[in-house]
Design goal:
heterodimer, B: alpha+beta, 8 strands
Chain lengths: 103, 535
């Protein structure tokens, strides 16, 4: 269940990074169209919020929130490294994380 | 500050508060991070204990051993094995002895056989833990003041750093590689921003923990110097057990009840099981057996746990105590103290905090390097400068040198014979002597060579430690992994991971383009120097 929180947070930050024009272009090599950025932003925040749930479920309110904060940091570092080293593969990494979510 | 904008003023503050205390802060962060695994590291440093394998029969076995070890004692205390220490630690007091934390007789028992184990004399990770807020070899109060001031400056550096950072949100995920100073800046920012909740929490809570000791005046005034009253009100020592059942009969010999039914009762209530057993007046009619739940489930109550008291002869349940919810101020203090000390058991959160500490150490280290990198172009133009050279040397010795010193501490732990007098002191001496030598080395060698050589030494020292464990029967990776002894294996694997990390540093410093660039700049520097001479 600890993996679930990190994977959700990773997807959340990945989607959130795509809501920024700079990273969107980095990943898709084209400018974002229309409302896309806004939708991505809302989805990203939603995923980050949902990522708190497994930890709270597992460890209760106070310790759960502390775990959530730690998992957010870990996930954000992972997204940053992905964007820095293999930006074009970000979507594949997200897909991999999503598959792992269901396993 | 005339002429400096708000942001520039903060930038200046950030640079200089960071530089002056950065070396100390790195040491505090680094040893503090290791302290998250204090029990695990201490256990790893005593290979004599690594064969201890707890099982369901351990409490009964230790219980039986206590009857032969200390039949006449006034008091027994048994700490059962847990995920962080695989042995049972027992302690007892003679009749009439005041039960202090340091007093009494202690033994470490093998969880599988209940035989006493004789471990080598070492301070283990307690030395690192103490060092991270009391340093070493100076009066405690002075050292705590120094660390307290450094912590305050860390808080200043965090706040001024956030103000100075121009694009905290747009650069949130940005790490531009191979861009020299730009890359160092990005790395420093990313390490700071992405783990900001951790940095703020650990610094603020560290300050809070030191506060009552550094600034006791408010407390002394309010409580008229009666610290005990303050602690009682804050509830740190817990209510003293509501006096034992008032038996008026005189003490008479009587045998203790069986332990197993009591444990079964407790385990039915506590999912995390029993952590500690204490017995007062064992072997008499006054005997009381007290079971304590292991770990805690909330940050608010500072990891306090449930307790059950039984009549030692009849086995009747006398009282069950559950932790009470503290008031708001105490709860807030407890949350911060709890997060800093991390006493409650949850391996995942422990690892997350450890990662936070690693990111924090790296943040301080990149900040220190950044100071040097930023001033390199100027130094190339104007020639070397004593202050600049000093910062360079101190950077190498405080960042890479500390790891070398830690490696020396672990090696001393392995190599110093068990019968040497004052053995644990020699371990600590090795740590400081080697650390001092890394500073000498950093002063004598060219800057890049100094980094390279010390990091290479870290690789060799840390990678060889798990290999050396082959001289012990239960400690090497093959034995620990096949037995599922992750307590010891985890430490070895972390040492290997750290060696790999240092190896990446060596690889980076040896990359041809980096070396070429450095050579080019050196040539440019000498050329300009010659020009100045001819002119």
């Amino acid at each position: 269940m600890s993996a679930l929180g990190v994977l959700l947070a990773f997807c959340g930050f990945a989607v959130l990074s795509l809501s920024m024009e700079k990273h969107y272009e980095q990943v898709f090599a084209q400018a974002p169209a229309g409302q896309r950025l806004r939708i991505l932003r809302y989805c990203g925040w939603l995923l980050l919020a949902v990522a708190a749930w497994p930890a709270i479920q597992h460890a209760g309110g106070s310790i759960g929130l502390a775990i959530w904060a730690g998992e957010l940091t870990l996930a954000a570092v992972a997204v940053m490294l992905t964007l820095s080293y293999i930006p074009r593969q970000l979507l594949w990494v997200v897909c991999l994380a999503t598959v792992l979510l269901w396993v | 500050m005339n002429g400096l904008g708000f942001r520039q003023a903060n930038s200046w503050l950030h640079t200089w508060s960071g530089l002056l205390l950065g070396w100390l802060l790195f040491a505090v962060f680094f040893t503090g991070t290791l302290s998250f695994f204090r029990d695990e590291i201490s256990y790893w440093m005593k290979p004599e204990l690594h064969g201890s394998r707890p099982d369901a029969g351990t409490p009964e076995r230790v219980w039986a051993a206590m009857h032969t070890l200390a039949p006449q004692a006034a008091n027994w205390s048994i700490i059962l094995p847990d995920a962080r220490n695989a042995t049972a630690q027992v302690q007892w007091y003679a009749p009439g002895e005041r039960p202090t934390r340091a007093g009494g007789e202690r033994r470490v028992l093998d969880a599988g056989t209940a035989q006493p184990l004789q471990a080598r004399e070492t301070r283990g990770a307690d030395f690192l833990y103490r060092f991270h807020f009391e340093l070493y070899g100076m009066p405690r109060i002075v050292a705590r003041w120094i660390v307290g001031v450094a912590t305050m400056m860390m808080l200043v550096a965090i706040v001024s750093g956030v103000i100075t950072h121009k694009k905290i949100f747009t650069d949130f995920f940005t790490l531009r590689r191979r861009k020299g100073q730009r890359s160092w800046m990005d790395a420093h920012n990313a390490l700071a921003v992405l783990a900001l909740p951790f940095h703020f929490m650990i610094t603020y809570s560290g300050l809070l923990l030191l506060m009552f000791m550094l600034m006791p005046w408010g407390l002394e005034t309010a409580y008229d110097g009666d610290r005990r009253a303050f602690n009682a009100e804050r509830g740190t020592h817990g209510a003293v057990s509501a006096s034992a059942p008032t038996t008026t009969q005189a003490k008479a010999p009587a045998s203790l009840t069986a332990l197993q039914p009591l444990l079964a009762q407790a385990q039915a209530q506590w999912p995390r099981g029993v952590g500690r057993i204490t017995v007062s007046d064992p072997g008499t009619t006054h005997a009381i057996i007290q079971l304590q739940e292991s770990g805690g489930s909330s940050l608010l109550d500072r990891g306090r746990s449930g307790q059950m008291r039984f009549d030692g002869v009849t086995g009747a349940l006398l009282e069950t105590t559950t932790p009470v919810m503290p008031g708001a101020a105490t709860a807030t203090y407890n949350v911060f103290a709890g997060l800093h000390l991390l006493r409650f058991a949850d391996p995942w959160l422990r690892w997350l905090a450890f990662i936070g500490g690693v990111l924090g150490s790296a943040m301080v280290a990149t900040g220190l390097v950044l100071w040097v990198v930023k001033r390199l172009p100027q130094r190339r133009k104007q020639g070397s400068h004593l202050g600049h050279r000093l910062v360079e040397s101190l950077n190498v010795a405080s960042v890479a040198g500390l790891s070398v010193a830690l490696g020396a501490y672990f090696w001393a732990n392995r190599l110093i014979p068990a019968d040497v007098l004052g053995r644990s002191r020699w371990e600590i001496r090795s740590f400081f002597v080697v650390w001092a030598l890394t500073l000498v080395h950093a002063c004598l060698r060219p800057h890049r060579r100094a980094w390279l050589e010390q990091l290479a030494l870290v690789v060799v020292m840390f990678a060889a430690l798990p290999l050396y464990n082959w001289v012990y029967p239960h400690s090497h990776l093959l034995a620990t992994v096949s037995a599922g002894n992750w307590l010891v294996a985890g430490m070895d694997l972390t040492l290997l991971a750290y060696a790999a990390l240092a190896g990446m540093g060596v690889w980076y410093l040896r990359r041809p383009q980096v070396v070429a660039r450095a050579a080019a700049s050196r040539a440019a520097a000498t050329a300009t120097g010659r020009n100045e001479v001819t002119a």
